[in-house]
């Protein structure tokens, strides 16, 4: 299986047929996975922890959005076997919580796996362990690719909620957002994972692009999983929304 990173943007992606259609077209080019292992910006916990393995009501971890978003269901099967396999890849230890899927997972999957018939397991983002540890987590998970598991990081390559543009989209994103997004693409194009992991020193304008870093860091886990085998990067979705949130999605392999 390839490895993916999805720019999940705002929760309204769930009910946006245009932006959702972009994700649907991407997923239609992939073979159906045996299971999906997701790492979302919206669950930070260290050490890495597995979420629910049963069908649960979703986590609507947002406020002030249209009522219809709080009525959406996504009853994907749990993946208890995958918990055991992930634990073995991580040295036999994996904490588990009965935590439902958050919107960083179910919103994109509404479009990417709309039948909700693929088992889904969410793994927490152990962000406080640092960039290198996140990359190594991905490397540890890499054997799952050969077992039909789609590893999917979910965040945004540029994400600053303080700099959103409401109303009509501007003709172009601000320079700081475009520069950071382009830097990420160039690093991925040349497979320079060392620079990606060292983003705190190598990237331009990190403080503007990411006042907090959790939306960038799932990309490190995905890149780690891709780095074990020779992988090329492609970008099934690009562009910006709300002025400066990057919609860039990445497919490795």
From TrEMBL:
Question: Which InterPro entries does UniProt cross-reference here?
Answer: Extradiol_dOase_DODA, Xdiol_dOase_suB
Which SUPFAM superfamilies does the record associate with it?
LigB-like
What would you give as a GO molecular function for this chain, any one?
Answer: oxidoreductase activity, acting on single donors with incorporation of molecular oxygen, incorporation of two atoms of oxygen
Superkingdom of the source species: Bacteria
Protein's UniProt keywords contain Zinc = yes
On whether Oxidoreductase is a keyword of this UniProt record, the answer is yes
Record key words, sorted: Dioxygenase, Metal-binding, Oxidoreductase, Zinc
Q: Where is the Extradiol ring-cleavage dioxygenase class III enzyme subunit B domain?
A: 25-229
Q: Which cofactors go with this protein?
A: Zn(2+)
Instruction: State the similarity comment.
Output: Belongs to the DODA-type extradiol aromatic ring-opening dioxygenase family.
The name this protein carries in UniProt is Dioxygenase
């Amino acid at each position: 299986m390839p490895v993916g990173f999805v720019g999940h943007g705002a929760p309204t992606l769930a009910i946006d047929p245009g932006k959702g259609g972009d994700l649907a077209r991407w997923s239609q080019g992939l073979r159906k996975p045996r299971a999906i292992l997701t790492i979302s910006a919206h669950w930070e916990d260290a050490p890495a922890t597995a979420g629910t393995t049963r069908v649960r009501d979703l986590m609507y971890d947002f406020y002030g959005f249209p009522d219809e978003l709080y009525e959406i269901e996504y009853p994907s099967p749990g993946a208890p076997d995958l918990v055991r396999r992930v634990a073995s890849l991580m040295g036999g230890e994996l904490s588990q919580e009965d935590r439902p899927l958050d919107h960083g997972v179910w919103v994109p999957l509404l479009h990417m796996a709309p039948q909700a018939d693929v088992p889904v397991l969410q793994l927490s983002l152990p962000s406080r362990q640092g960039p290198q540890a996140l990359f190594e987590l991905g490397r540890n998970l890499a054997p799952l690719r050969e077992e039909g598991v789609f590893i999917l990081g979910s965040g945004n390559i540029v994400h600053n909620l303080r700099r959103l543009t409401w109303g009509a989209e501007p003709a172009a994103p601000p320079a700081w957002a475009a520069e950071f997004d382009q830097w990420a693409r160039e690093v991925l194009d040349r497979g320079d994972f060392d620079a990606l992991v060292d983003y705190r020193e190598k990237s331009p304008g990190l403080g503007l692009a990411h006042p907090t870093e959790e939306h960038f860091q799932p990309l490190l886990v995905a890149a780690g999983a891709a780095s074990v085998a020779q992988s090329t990067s492609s970008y099934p979705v690009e562009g910006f929304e709300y002025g400066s949130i990057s919609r860039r999605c990445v497919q490795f392999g």
